[in-house]
C-alpha cells in the first residue's frame, strides 16, 4: 500500500514544525564540505596547497574536535580565525596598522539541527593517521592561571598570533578562548609539541617546548573559557 499525503495535510505538518529527515552524511560531506576542506589525507603537501587552502583539513576531525561543540557550531558558525584560514589573503592597510578586510571573508554554511547531528557523527569518524595524537599525553594536572598567562603572553609568545579572550592577542591564528569546548586536550598538547606533524608546512613554529611547558600551556588554554583562567 502506498502512503499518500495530500497538499492540505502536508501544509498542516509544516506549520506544526514537521521536519524533513536529515540528509545522508556522505551527501552533506561532499556537497557542503569537500569544496573547502580535505576529507582525506592529501597525497601532496606543499606551500602552494597551504597558500590556497580555503578551510582547515578535516580528515582528522575525530581526534581534534569535541563532538558537542561541533554539532552546535555547525548550526550557528562563528569565525574562529579572525583573519580567515590564511590571514595574508584577508588583511589590508589601515590608517595606523593592517586591518581585516571583512568583505573578503565568506560566511560558513549553516546546517539544520538534524543535518548538524549527522555531520558531527560523520566528522568524528575521521581519525586520520593513527600516530597524529598520543592518547593520554595531557595529564590534566593543576595549573596556575597566573603562571600559564605569563608563559602564554610573554615567555612563549602565543599571544602574538592567538587571542586569549575577544580582542586580546593576535589575529593571524585561531582564537583560543573557546578551545576547551572546541578541542580535545590531547590534540592541543600534540599540536603544540609538533605542529607540522599534524599539519605539514603550517606557519605555526615548532618551539621545542619542554614537557612541563607543554603540560602548563595545554592546561592554561583549557582554562581560558573560565573566568578564573582569563586574567
In short:
37% of the residues lie in helices and 5% in strands. A hairpin with a 4-residue loop joins β1 and β2.
Question: What's the topology here?
Answer:
Blueprint: H1 7-15, H2 25-33, H3 47-52, H4 67-75, E1 91-93, E2 98-100, H5 113-124, H6 145-155, E3 163-165, E4 168-169, H7 179-182, H8 185-193, H9 195-198, H10 211-223
Antiparallel strand pairs: 1-2, 3-4
Helix pairs in contact: 2-5, 4-5, 6-10, 8-10
Mean pLDDT: 84
Rg from C-alpha positions? 20 Å
Relative strand content: under 5%
Q: Give the helix/strand class.
A: mainly alpha
Structure, described:
- The chain is mainly α and 231 residues long.
- The chain contains ten helices and four strands.
- The strands form two sheets. The protein has a two-stranded antiparallel sheet with strand order 1-2.
- Helix 4 runs antiparallel to helix 5, helix 6 crosses helix 10 and helix 8 packs across helix 10.
- The longest helix has 13 residues.
- The C terminus is likely disordered.
Amino acid at each position: 500500500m502506498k502512503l499518500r499525503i495530500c497538499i492540505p495535510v502536508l501544509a498542516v505538518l509544516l506549520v506544526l514544525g514537521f521536519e524533513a529527515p536529515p540528509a545522508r552524511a556522505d551527501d552533506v560531506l561532499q556537497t557542503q564540505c569537500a569544496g573547502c576542506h580535505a576529507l582525506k589525507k592529501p597525497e601532496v603537501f606543499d606551500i602552494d596547497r597551504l597558500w590556497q587552502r580555503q578551510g582547515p583539513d578535516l580528515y582528522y576531525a575525530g581526534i581534534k574536535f569535541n563532538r558537542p561543540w561541533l554539532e552546535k557550531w555547525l548550526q550557528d558558525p562563528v569565525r574562529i580565525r579572525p583573519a580567515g584560514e590564511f590571514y595574508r589573503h584577508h588583511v589590508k592597510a589601515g590608517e595606523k596598522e593592517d586591518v581585516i578586510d571583512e568583505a573578503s571573508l565568506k560566511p560558513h554554511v549553516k546546517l539544520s539541527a538534524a543535518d548538524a547531528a549527522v555531520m558531527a557523527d560523520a566528522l568524528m569518524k575521521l581519525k586520520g593517521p593513527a600516530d597524529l595524537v598520543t592518547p593520554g599525553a595531557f595529564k590534566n594536572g593543576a595549573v596556575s592561571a597566573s603562571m600559564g598567562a605569563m608563559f602564554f603572553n610573554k615567555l612563549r609568545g602565543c599571544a602574538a598570533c592567538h587571542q586569549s579572550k575577544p580582542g586580546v592577542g593576535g589575529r593571524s591564528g585561531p582564537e583560543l578562548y573557546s578551545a576547551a569546548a572546541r578541542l580535545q586536550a590531547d590534540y592541543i598538547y600534540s599540536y603544540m609539541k609538533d605542529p607540522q606533524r599534524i599539519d605539514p608546512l603550517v606557519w605555526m613554529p615548532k618551539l621545542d617546548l619542554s614537557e612541563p611547558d607543554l603540560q602548563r600551556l595545554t592546561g592554561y588554554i583549557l582554562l581560558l573559557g573560565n573566568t578564573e583562567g582569563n586574567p
